[in-house]
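Deviations from the work plan: none for this task. Representative record:
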Amino acid sequence: MRSIVYSIKQVVEMLDIPSVTLRAWENRYQAVVPERTESGYRLYNQENIEDLRWLKEQTDKQGISISHAVRMLKQHKQKDLDERLSVAGGDPKDALDKMRQQIYAALLDIQGERADALIDFGFSLYGYEAMVHQVLVPVLVKVGDAWEQGTATVAQEHYMTHMISNRLSQFFHVFPVYAHLHKVLAFCPAGEHHQVGLLLFSLFLRRNGVEVIYLGANTPEDGVMELLEKQERIGAVCLSVTNGTLVPYTEELLERLGSLYPEMQLIVGGRAYEAISLQDTNATYVMAEPPEKWQAWFDQEYATIRHRA
Amino acid sequence: MRSIVYSIKQVVEMLDIPSVTLRAWENRYQAVVPERTESGYRLYNQENIEDLRWLKEQTDKQGISISHAVRMLKQHKQKDLDERLSVAGGDPKDALDKMRQQIYAALLDIQGERADALIDFGFSLYGYEAMVHQVLVPVLVKVGDAWEQGTATVAQEHYMTHMISNRLSQFFHVFPVYAHLHKVLAFCPAGEHHQVGLLLFSLFLRRNGVEVIYLGANTPEDGVMELLEKQERIGAVCLSVTNGTLVPYTEELLERLGSLYPEMQLIVGGRAYEAISLQDTNATYVMAEPPEKWQAWFDQEYATIRHRA
DNA sequence: CAAATTATTTACACTCATTATACAATTGCA
DNA sequence: TGCAATTGTATAATGAGTGTAAATAATTTG
């Protein structure tokens, strides 16, 4: 690869553009951003020259304004895509890490457009599994941590959580349902408004072919009961609780459910159940971290349930 | 991939239509509505050019008046949609009505698979506008009504609301953002957990090219304030309140916002504000039914806001 | 070291685009 | 015909885009 570089004076002579103008174009529009020497002198490479020549052509002969010419140039070169593609180069591990960081940074900065573009790009590049489990979920966890540690404001947490869970829940309806599996009823009990954990676990089940009836946050008990009576083939109820004070009520609820439907799997999770083991609850499975263990549970405990008559 | 865009000067030269006329056509008939740069300069894309060329052809050579030509153009474009509609056979009105009923029935019956399939099918057949405004939103309204009247259980309401608002929020990131418009901050105040109205209005704004920072339900005040300080170019705050007891607090919040940011548009909506008129609130716009009126408000009150220094 | 080159910052005309309003000329229609 | 709506254009005020210049400081070169 050729690496001839030119000083600004050489460029001025080659292209007949005053140095003042070159600098103005760079500062104002990032039209052409040359490398610099250690002391800050500009070093234009061949590509820079070509770009500048093209820009001059547009402005001089076509009468196009410089700002517009730069817009066209950038579009033409698909600069944006190139930047994002550079994420893909190198080690895939680094790439995913970089993607995590960039998405997190974009969200922290409330740059929805950019975050969406990054996520779209990530899906096209890495597919569902890698993107969800190695990028979006970690970002979501990081958001929660940042909030707890005060690194992010409440509004930032809300925004980031919404953006990501929105993207995640898109996948709810794209996976096939395996009809031989029992359905799962997922909800947070009345008073509980935090549904991220529930969403993640529901998505995990959905990915495994389970039809999930997702009721979301703050669902009163009577509604659930009616639904269980009407619907057949519900094999599990999945609850997520963050608010610790709701645990006693949740346990009562679990007990009622267990006595009404003895064959039903009762799954609990969420912050409030993080430190609670199976012995201390009426549930039949506690979905704690890490999500990798979920698969083992699913394969052994859920996928094997046969139909009831 | 984005298409090439042209400045107004280029369009003038290409089509030989004075810029003054181009602007008049846009203002008077919305003949061709180009995107804008961040500073509000018009950016015409290829489709805009084609439309303008066609309009000029009609007016110059065919002697047709511009208003009539625009009507024809819009009719012409509508025809594409109609053709897609008629693919389904029969009267499109009946078809949409049938789709509403089927989707509602599927949701009421907790048949997520079927509802999703119907919705997918509907989008592919009728496109975004028809599907959202004539099917999903009406279904959502019907769900709310059914819940109030006791025709649906709480669980059914939760489920249906979740399914539909999930599908709706997918569109959040597919529409282009017009950078010259101010952003909108959308949230429900602390204590308010019902965000359907907020979602619909946010989606409406998003559809009109506004970047919406969506914080969702139950957002505490301090987070919002921090965000407003940090973010620039937020032109409006949008609040939705269902719980009537929160109105006094909301009004206080609005007053604080109004005194801190006198230029900010303050939009309120939701059940709690249904019967409240502009005189009785500190807000600058009440987003009440019907959504058709939103467009008039937007065109007059929001799309025309200029930049602050 | 002195001269030449380059960099940053600030400023200033000058052009161009924006909105809003106004105003004839034309058109449509009762 | 007469009158109001339509329509292309003109103008004014404001702000953004753009080339260039000056002041000042740092670096390179002979």
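The mean pLDDT of chain A is 86.
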